[in-house]
Amino acid sequence: MPPRKRPAPPLEEPPPSSKPAPDAKPSEPTKSAPDSETPTISATVLAKLPNMERQVYTLIFEAGSKGMWLLDVRKKLNISPNIATKVVRTLVTHHLLKEVSDVRHRSRKIFMATDFQPSDEITGGTWYHDGKLDTDAVSAVRRRCQAQVEKLGAATVQMIHNGILRDDPKAGYTIDKIRDIVRTMVLDKVLEEVKSTGEGEFAAVRSGTMCYRLAGAAQGGMMEGIPCGVCPRIDECSPDGVISPSTCVYYKKWLQMDF
């Protein structure tokens, strides 16, 4: 006789805590939070605005953090200066628009939706405060950059940036800001941009990489101070050749005179 099968055990009911409530709705998929960094125009606000104010507000809102010059508003909507000024001022009064200063064009009236903050392109970024250059902050970081170059002899922007953060982790300068400062120091002839040879003072910088050193530094003798000292084609250079001192733009720049 075959063995008898055991009856299946009774199904266990889920504990009360796991039972859905009688009127519970099915769970909805989780929605990601809207991007708070990208403001969207309010349909409610638009509905309350007269036609011309709605057009101007929409146009300026779409310009985002760059804002819009009042003259451009007039041209795009083909309206007179008086109407444009009146409409924009009304929107400013209602706190929908604001006037911002553009460090590049002091005389221009730039307007922006109050939902946005001006871009660095308009404010000047870290080195500007209330539309004015923060000369103290610029001088401080220039001193830090110069100190790193003096310490290293020759350094790339990345090396300068790393050195500043190593000395002061709370400095908070981005590499782009350091690059901007270094460029101004080159224009002011405090630093000079040179190509590394990978030797001597450039030992820490890969050969062929553009880097910076103190301007006018006579390290390594006179020949290293002029472009010829680091030129990879100096052996091909001759007075009557295709490559010659009379046609070398770097040599002319170093002499600061024309042949």
From TrEMBL:
<keyword id="KW-0539">Nucleus</keyword>
<dbReference type="InterPro" id="IPR036390">
    <property type="entry name" value="WH_DNA-bd_sf"/>
</dbReference>
<dbReference type="InterPro" id="IPR016049">
    <property type="entry name" value="RNA_pol_Rpc34-like"/>
</dbReference>
<dbReference type="Pfam" id="PF05158">
    <property type="entry name" value="RNA_pol_Rpc34"/>
</dbReference>
<dbReference type="GO" id="GO:0005666">
    <property type="term" value="C:RNA polymerase III complex"/>
</dbReference>
<keyword id="KW-0240">DNA-directed RNA polymerase</keyword>
<feature type="region of interest" description="Disordered">
    <location>
        <begin position="1"/>
        <end position="40"/>
    </location>
</feature>
<dbReference type="InterPro" id="IPR007832">
    <property type="entry name" value="RNA_pol_Rpc34"/>
</dbReference>
<keyword id="KW-0804">Transcription</keyword>
<feature type="compositionally biased region" description="Pro residues">
    <location>
        <begin position="8"/>
        <end position="19"/>
    </location>
</feature>
<dbReference type="InterPro" id="IPR036388">
    <property type="entry name" value="WH-like_DNA-bd_sf"/>
</dbReference>
<comment type="similarity">
    <text>Belongs to the eukaryotic RPC34/RPC39 RNA polymerase subunit family.</text>
</comment>
<dbReference type="GO" id="GO:0005654">
    <property type="term" value="C:nucleoplasm"/>
</dbReference>
<protein>
    <recommendedName>
        <fullName>DNA-directed RNA polymerase III subunit RPC6</fullName>
    </recommendedName>
</protein>
<dbReference type="GO" id="GO:0005737">
    <property type="term" value="C:cytoplasm"/>
</dbReference>
